[in-house]
Amino acid sequence: MFDIPFLRPNLVKKERFISNFEKIEETRIYSNYGPLNNLFEERVIAQMFDGIGSAVTVHNATIGLILAIAQSKRPQGKYAVMPSFTFAATPLAAEWCGLEPYFLDIEPENWQMNREQLEQTVKLLGDEIAVIVPYATFGTAIDLSVYNKLQEQGIPVVIDAAASFGTITPEEATHFGKGFGGAVVFSFHATKSFGIGEGGLVYSLDQDLIKRIRQAGNFGFSSSRESVTQGLNSKISEYTAAIALATLDHFKTVRENRRTIYEYYLQELLQADLLERGWSIQKTQGSVVHQFIPLLSPDSHTNQEVVKLLASNSIEARTYFSPACHQQKQFQSYTRSTLRVTEHIAKHIVSLPLWEELDEIIVRRIVNVLGSLGKETTG
After folding, report:
1. CATH numeric code, 14-248
2. Does domain 251-372 have CATH number 3.90.1150.10?
3. Burial of residue 361, with CB atoms counted within 10 A of its CB: 0-12 exposed, 13-18 middle, 19 or more buried
4. Percent of the chain with pLDDT over 90
5. Distances (CA, A) of 321 to 89, 146, 204
6. How many CB atoms are located within 10 Å of the residue 199 CB?
7. Does 192 participate in catalysis according to the annotation?
């Protein structure tokens, strides 16, 4: 056990959703896109996306990726082009759709998929590309202009935006993904900023795409309950929808709290001069509801050294995403571009604790330990 754990999920309390549980007992509708689920989808579109587009809930973001890729991919395509610096769920989803991941590098400051490599890869692979799956790294907004152009060229795009629910874009000051014609997949896992236990959401401006995903997520049933397309069961229960509705009511407070904690970290990192001593942070775009604090260690020290040092001070840290996907056994055989930036970041990425009860004193303790790196004495 650590004095300071990496994450301490803090889901909405039962007092906030018990009235919705009572509604479930009244209706005796427990699943199958019930009234609470429908209300949640409607409120998300109205409150988060200004009434623009459509959305469907899914049991988790991995299922959301599988369904979005399956309903978007070009049937004759072979590859799902994606960054290697992403969670394993992304290439796994491509595999479940019968595709081969094709890994690209990331950009050194914002850690999004390298757009120059992407342009070259589109020219190289042509019609062999089934779908492109960029990752909105650690919740940041990413530049969608290049992906809008790809959509216009007939190349489907599914954005893995697992941690980006609540992210506001820097230019338009609207929710990330709003108005995007491809699919945008969000995670509502307990560890995410919008955590409901298990769950997710697929958003798109394309109402027909969302209808197809909804149908595929209900066994591919037609209105006569006949399977007419490949499907599975991705539906959330009404109990999950009840928690999601209560979480949506409470989300403004969560956003403000997490933003405050992120500012604590920035303040302490600056005061300790760590950013002048080789440490670096991601250059995010927009206002992000941070899930945790990603940080790169100095070139002279690996992330494993940092994690070990923090653990010796009873502080738990992780290394998302190290190893990167192309370094993992399941994906090592797949084609990839040069991945110089990915491999450097995978060697130095450290994920620091963020949970809603953190205060300045705890953050200062964490940063002070980071500042002692390389100064440890041996007995």
Report:
1. 3.40.640.10
2. yes
3. exposed
4. 97
5. 12, 24, 27
6. 28
7. yes
List the chain domain ranges: 14-248, 251-372
In which residue are the tokens 């056990």 written? 1
b/e sequence 169-194, b meaning 16+ C-beta within 10 Å: beeeebbbbbbbbbbbbbbbbeebbb
**Does residue 172 surpass a pLDDT of 90?**
no
Exactly one of 192, 308, 329, 347 is catalytic; name it: 192
Q: What is the pLDDT of residues 76-124, one digit of tens each?
A: 999 999 999 999 999 999 999 999 999 999 999 999 999 999 999 999 9
User: How many whole angstroms separate alpha carbon 68 and alpha carbon 89?
Assistant: 13
Kindly report, residue by residue over 262-293, the tens digit of the pLDDT: 999 999 999 999 999 999 999 999 999 999 99
Provide the pLDDT for residue 171: 83
DSSP states of 307-325: HHHHHHTTB--B-TTSS-G
Contact, 53 vs 179, CB < 8 A?
yes
> Is the pTM value of this prediction over 0.90?
yes
Q: Band the pLDDT of 64: cuts 50, 70, 90.
A: very high
Q: Where are the alpha helices (DSSP H) in 97-206?
A: 115-125, 145-152
